[in-house]
TrEMBL record:
<feature type="domain" description="Glycosyltransferase 2-like">
    <location>
        <begin position="20"/>
        <end position="150"/>
    </location>
</feature>
<dbReference type="Pfam" id="PF00535">
    <property type="entry name" value="Glycos_transf_2"/>
</dbReference>
<dbReference type="InterPro" id="IPR029044">
    <property type="entry name" value="Nucleotide-diphossugar_trans"/>
</dbReference>
<dbReference type="GO" id="GO:0016758">
    <property type="term" value="F:hexosyltransferase activity"/>
</dbReference>
<dbReference type="InterPro" id="IPR001173">
    <property type="entry name" value="Glyco_trans_2-like"/>
</dbReference>
<protein>
    <recommendedName>
        <fullName>Glycosyltransferase 2-like domain-containing protein</fullName>
    </recommendedName>
</protein>
Amino acid sequence: MEEIPALDSNKKQIQGLQLSVIVPAYNVSEYLKKCVKSLLNQDLSEYEYEIIIINDGSTDDTEKVALELSRKYSQVHVYTKKNEGLSLTRNYGIERAVGRYIMFIDADDYVLENCYGHICSEMDTNHLDILALNYNYVDDYGKGCRNPYFRRMAKNKSAVLSGRDYILTNFFAPMVWANVYRKDWLISNDLYMLPIGHEDEEFTPRAIYLSRRIKFIPLAFYQYVQHENSYMARYRESNFFDMIKAMESLNKFKKSIHISSDKEIKDFFDNRIGKMCLMIFKRSIREEYPIQKKLLDAMQGAGLLPLRIKPSSFYSRFFNWNPILFARYYSLLKKRRCRI
């Protein structure tokens, strides 16, 4: 599919924009207008920020909706490209962004009104590489849902920290859209996303660690919509192996930064990688995918075994001792709980 740039080529000539909001869009025609309307209902002028909608080869009316919005609002720019997936579409947006700061939003979510000014002020005043935000889970009707990160995130004090100190709090959301990033810092550190699923789980710890100045504020700006048919409800088989690839990359990053003398950071990465591997292994059993042997082979090939979780748990010790026996035990435990 031929790339289609923004309708008004003069739009992208604007320099000195504060913020670029990147919106990857694939078959989201029914949600896109609500998402973009929330991005327009903000306290920056149309000359201070841009909304970059990237149609990732949609087969519905996503492109049509996006172009209609671009005709109506000067800060909305639209690109259409062949379908490549979320990671490469986000990278595509980074390369075309003009703003000093970058945010991401998924096209089926939305944000609170009149928050951009505060966000940009925090970035400017504190000379931040990353500003971390809180967020809400909502259903299709806007009703709040349980957010497993909200209270954990709120434990972060609103102080400027180094990436090392921040990551060791272990109270951060891995989703790319939960943070605001300084663009020139992203580029100078070659911070792009892997072309796999679960790229957030690899990208976010890497980005946080490399940041020199990061701050959390409790503003629940982002509204994450859990649709009834949400992708998060059930993994596809490929998702399990994508997570292993993400953890393999994170493990390589850990080795590349030469942290042998920093035991706390080494333990952080080992724990995060080990817990994610154990999580997907257990989830494959709960969701009745008969792929445990394949997962173990993939983990072994990626150099992720044995799991290096500290302090170790009963599950992690059992898994390291005999993962096949652990799989049988966990399957029986799941079935027993279902009968109760």
